[in-house]
Inverse folding.
């Protein structure tokens, strides 16, 4: 029994109205595996970096009990690098640099020791690579969660649709749900997307929370209203990692557990945005997480 | 003990992607009093119309037990008329026509029989007129709820701030909360607005629900995800009317009752948008309302 996270492990340079960073460690698999590690202790990652990636960063993942046996280090190559600048509203950003580097020909090799995978998180990557991972697992995991983005809808819709067919939970934002379905109403969009393969759809709405769709059921999760959003980078990956980490912990896949998983994922994401990059989610205590989850409870509870 | 609603009673002509109407009856006081009437049976209105306003429409308000003694009918004058066209996303609209007519010199006269007012809903009107109503009530109501909009912030900020000082609950949308406070973060905006007079602030976020702020407490209410929004006109007024109608029914002003009032108000608003104008909220049963409120409960409930 283990949880496999696939995605980028990379460098980011981020500028927000609050400041800017040099190259710091980021990447979907970094955020997601760190978040998952607070709930589950058999988290494996598959990713690729160049030999410019600091060994102490890998050691820090290991300290969080994230197994990096599947992290390929390519000699003489450079790690994926993304740089972006957020606008004042923090809801939109400009990409300044995208250097694929090692990611350009990433072949996701699954170590034999990872083959007991029950829970699979496909972080945002080309849908072709995501599909390859599914194919290379000898047994179909109990739960496959996939994150993707508008970029793949623009340039690889066919591959995306083929991969979506194979998964259980799709996590996208509201604009992406509209793009993928061609429907403006999120209810209609969800109905359509749930015929494309996934049994569950999570629509992330940032500061407005998230919606979970399954058959005819809908769950609306609040977002924690925050005085400051310092840096939104990685919030979606952190959400997804917290979500699947919690699911792996409880073990049983059903709508009620997914509702709670969304709350735990949202709680982790609410920490993530409080500092630059992965800083805040490297150093959380279980008490802090429990207290934050209680804030979500009191935020949305009413008795009629 | 009674509930007083002040606002417009007017004509609207509405165009949405689903169709367009001729002149139909609208206005903040119409929506709000109809919504309130499902929870409370002593609803009084103060408003003004011209003699072009159909008597049967007044009779229909009376059929809903809305007392129209304070509805002034100006001989030889015309009722307020607004015409607007919604964009495809239904979240934005263009105003095509605004004919103030009788509204231009509206003097809100409070009938003596309304002076037992415990709950006061100040529908969207000039803040000067809203303030006059407060001054003309011999006893300060137990709860004063005020709705306003960006228009008054643009042209009458000083009067608006003077009126806001006198009230208990302010209902505005997220853009208006940002404009009024000069803060982008809604948490910071709320903190600032709660120093301006109101003890409670409701920020309406349309399809994303609503936030209630009071001291250090926040309640996040979901919106019902709808397959079709047919016509959003009056949804905010219906929300406010349902909110204060429920508060008048339970009688006690506290945070928990307000949370429920927001759910009931949201339920009424979710009906409102299903048809053009006031059509849907003229003909609801208590069973329909109860069932809709239950949808809000199951939408947002989780057990951690």
């Amino acid at each position: 029994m283990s949880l496999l996270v696939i995605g980028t492990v990379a460098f980011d340079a981020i500028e927000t109205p609050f400041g800017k960073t040099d190259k710091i460690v980021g990447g979907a698999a970094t955020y997601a595996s760190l978040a998952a590690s607070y709930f589950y202790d058999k988290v494996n990652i598959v990713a690729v970096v160049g030999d410019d990636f600091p060994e102490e960063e890998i050691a820090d993942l290991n300290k969080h009990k994230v197994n990096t046996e599947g992290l390929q280090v390519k000699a003489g190559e450079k790690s994926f690098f993304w740089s972006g600048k957020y606008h004042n509203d923090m809801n939109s950003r400009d990409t300044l640099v995208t250097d694929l580097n090692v990611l350009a020909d990433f072949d996701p090799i699954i170590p034999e020791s990872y083959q007991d995978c029950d829970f699979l998180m496909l972080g945002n990557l080309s849908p072709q690579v995501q599909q390859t991972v599914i194919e290379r697992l000898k047994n179909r995991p109990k739960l496959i969660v996939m994150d993707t983005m508008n970029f793949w809808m623009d340039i690889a819709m066919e591959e995306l649709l083929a991969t979506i067919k194979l998964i259980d939970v799709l996590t996208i934002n509201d604009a992406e749900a509209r793009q993928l379905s061609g429907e403006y109403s999120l209810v209609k969009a969800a109905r359509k997307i749930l015929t494309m393969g996934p049994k569950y759809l999570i629509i992330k709405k940032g500061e407005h929370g998230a919606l979970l769709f399954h058959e005819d059921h809908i769950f609306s999760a609040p977002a924690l209203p925050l005085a400051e959003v310092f840096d939104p980078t990685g919030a979606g990956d952190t959400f997804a990692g917290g979500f699947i980490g919690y699911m792996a912990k409880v073990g049983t896949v059903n709508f009620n557990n997914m509702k709670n998983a969304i709350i735990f994922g949202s709680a982790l994401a609410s920490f993530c945005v409080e500092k630059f990059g992965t800083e805040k989610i490297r150093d959380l205590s279980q008490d802090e997480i429990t207290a934050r989850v209680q804030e979500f409870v009191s935020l949305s509870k009413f008795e009629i």
